[in-house]
Structure formats: C-alpha cells, structure tokens
Design goal:
4-stranded antiparallel sheet, alpha+beta, 3 helices, elongated, 78 residues
Length: 78
C-alpha cells in the first residue's frame, strides 16, 4: 500500500514504450502477456503492460482485458 503511494508520487510515469511484443503459442507467458498474448514494456523502468492489437492500446486492468478477449473470441467463433 505504502509502496504504491510512493510509486505514484515519485515513480516512473511510463511515457516511453517498446513496440508491442507478441508471445509465440506454446511458450511460457508472463503476467502481462497472459491476458492478450501481447505486451509492451516501459523503456524507463522495465514494467510490462498488456496490449490489445485490435484496439491498438494498452489495457489497464486484468478484468477489462479478459472481458475484451472473451468478446472477441465469441465474435470470431460465430
């Protein structure tokens, strides 16, 4: 709790990102890539964030990302 407050005030602002990285199927995925299979990395601090190729933006929370991925899978299956 105190660590999050400290990071909010004095931590990285996450302004510089890598190009989106997609993990190959069958390989081990990190927490950020587990949601959509694609992630970006902050080039200043190294933190990883899930990325949605369809929306062309980062996903903030895991619950939002899993709902988005589920709706895409339903549309493609139909």
């Amino acid at each position: 709790m105190l660590g999050k407050l400290f990071d909010t005030l004095f931590g990285c602002w996450h302004r510089h990102y890598s190009f989106p990285i997609t993990v190959r199927k069958g390989s081990r995925r990190n927490a950020a890539a587990a949601i959509t299979g694609t992630y970006v990395v902050c080039l200043d601090c190294g933190k990883e964030f899930p990325y949605d190729w369809h929306e062309m933006k980062m996903i903030d929370s895991a619950s939002e990302g899993s709902g988005r991925v589920g709706s895409l899978a339903t549309k493609e299956a139909a």
